[in-house]
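Action item from last meeting closed. Structure (522 res):
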């Protein structure tokens, strides 16, 4: 394909992701994604290549042919509105696959990896990839691409919601109605971990020795000796069960110090533990009642309700499959720690290889040279052709290729006094902007600030909990910011593509989420 004969658009960027998880989508799995959604493998929509721009392990941008991406999204929206039952059936299989992932990882983590043979490590890697296909690639069209360009699905469904509200004369805010109708009546893993942590806290509160010892803690490196063994065991089990949640694709898991500090803070806050547990346990049923009642009030027909169900599934599944993928990456890191040294490679090389290279590594065959992997620590462009083959370009060649690529640019008005996006959770708030793109940014976040991010992820949730409102460049009802903001009830506007180019720390803004509007005080 002559890349200069079409226009390209940046579809996403991801920091600290490495090559495998992104590259394998194109080199191996895209036909599976399309077949799972549309029921046919060929002819492919979105078939003429991908360009991945990297700096070390950071994917600075994934670029796709704009006309083909638009066609893919429009075809998916048409399918959802005409045959919602087909998409709902696909999503049901994904939920089943996700359950299998957690069982697989739990079982694999229990093994003594240092004692595993090369063949056993290879088998775990191959099973990892099989599960990755099922939970990451099969639902990729609906849980990623669908709302990744202009939030077309979200905006169309929002317009449908406006029609229902207007037709019935309801006083319900249409953005609030949209948020509720597209919320799944189920607790996310974030809420499930919170529930588990509260149940541990209840044990601590009920035991004076434990409560007093944790309130006095200044050294969080270990559980105080005064805590009875039974409660210690429960606290340790909680850490082991959930420590992977901030790992992402390659970061650091939590240790006991994180949970001890958290339990101490909750004790100091003197929260009503029983009430907090009851609130979270009862949330799914409450959402179901409110959602069903609203649908009846607005006269939503069964066919349209299926579309809302798909939207709720999409938002929930994106978070659930990302959690599953992080859990899998936590396992993969431990497998790499055994396999790479045996192949003469360094740990830092683990995220600089593509799928075909990792397959040969685990099979005990050739691996990229140290010099080749060293080059990938700098600017690297991967060009995928229509057959899924990848070509590497480095340094000056990579920069020259990207300079020549006809990319659609975002218009930026740095002096703008308003920004616009899509309402992810209704409401309004005014506060001071804090740019939060990494865990290292979180200390500057104060209660009531406006959190602004390119894209949020689980490790940023403690900062999101402090926010009066959330603004995200990533967009649509399926992005992480949209999912978490609904769970927290925090006003949120997503798809604000130039937020980080216009806003800076200290700016004062008013977020009118129901209008999808941010007003900047100048």
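Sequence:
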């Amino acid at each position: 394909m002559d890349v200069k004969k079409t226009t390209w658009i940046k579809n996403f960027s991801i920091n600290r992701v490495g090559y495998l998880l992104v590259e394998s989508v194109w080199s191996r799995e895209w036909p599976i994604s399309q077949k799972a959604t549309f029921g046919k493998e060929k002819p492919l929509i979105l078939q003429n290549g991908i360009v991945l721009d990297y700096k070390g392990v950071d994917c600075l941008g994934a670029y796709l042919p704009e006309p083909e991406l638009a066609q893919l999204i429009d075809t998916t929206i048409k399918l959802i509105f005409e045959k919602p039952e087909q998409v709902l059936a696909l999503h049901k299989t994904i939920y089943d696959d996700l359950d299998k992932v957690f069982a697989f990882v739990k079982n694999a983590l229990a093994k003594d990896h240092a004692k595993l043979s090369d063949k056993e490590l290879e088998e775990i890697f191959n099973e990892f990839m099989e599960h990755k296909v099922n939970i990451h690639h099969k639902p990729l069209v609906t849980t990623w691409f669908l709302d990744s360009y202009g939030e077309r699905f979200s905006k169309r469904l929002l317009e449908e919601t406006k029609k229902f509200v207007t037709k019935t004369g309801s006083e319900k805010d249409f953005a609030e109605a949209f948020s509720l109708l597209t919320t799944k009546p189920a607790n996310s893993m974030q809420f499930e971990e919170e529930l588990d942590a509260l149940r541990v806290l209840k044990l601590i509160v009920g035991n004076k020795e434990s409560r007093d010892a944790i309130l006095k803690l200044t050294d969080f490196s270990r559980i105080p000796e005064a805590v009875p063994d039974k409660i210690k065991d429960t606290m340790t089990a909680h850490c082991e069960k959930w420590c992977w949640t901030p790992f992402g694709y390659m970061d650091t898991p939590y240790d006991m110090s994180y949970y001890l500090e958290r339990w101490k803070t909750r004790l100091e806050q003197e929260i009503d533990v029983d009430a907090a547990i009851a609130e979270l346990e009862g949330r799914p049923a409450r959402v179901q009642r409110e959602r069903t009642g609203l649908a009846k009030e607005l006269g939503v027909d069964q066919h349209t309700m299926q579309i809302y169900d798909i939207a709720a599934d999409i938002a929930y599944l994106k978070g659930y499959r990302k959690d599953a993928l992080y859990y899998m990456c936590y396992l993969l890191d431990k497998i790499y720690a055994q396999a790479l040294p045996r192949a003469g490679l360094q740990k830092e090389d683990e995220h600089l290889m593509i799928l075909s290279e990792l397959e040969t590594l685990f099979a005990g065959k050739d691996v990229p040279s140290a010099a080749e992997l060293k080059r990938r620590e700098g600017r690297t462009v991967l060009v995928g052709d229509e057959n899924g083959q990848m070509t590497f370009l480095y340094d000056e060649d990579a920069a020259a290729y990207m300079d020549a690529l006809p990319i659609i640019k975002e218009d930026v008005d740095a002096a703008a006094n308003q920004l616009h996006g899509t309402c992810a959770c209704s409401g309004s708030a005014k506060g001071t902007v804090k740019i939060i793109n990494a865990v290292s940014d979180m200390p500057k976040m104060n209660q009531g600030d406006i959190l602004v991010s390119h894209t949020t992820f689980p490790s940023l949730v403690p900062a999101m909990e402090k926010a009066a409102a959330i603004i995200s460049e990533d967009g649509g009802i399926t992005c992480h910011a949209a999912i978490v903001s609904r769970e927290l009830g925090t006003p949120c506007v997503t798809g604000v593509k130039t937020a980080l180019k216009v806003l800076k720390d200290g700016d004062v803004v008013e977020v009118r989420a129901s209008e999808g509007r941010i007003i900047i005080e100048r």
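Note appended to the action item: Residues 135 and 321 are 6 Å apart (CA to CA).
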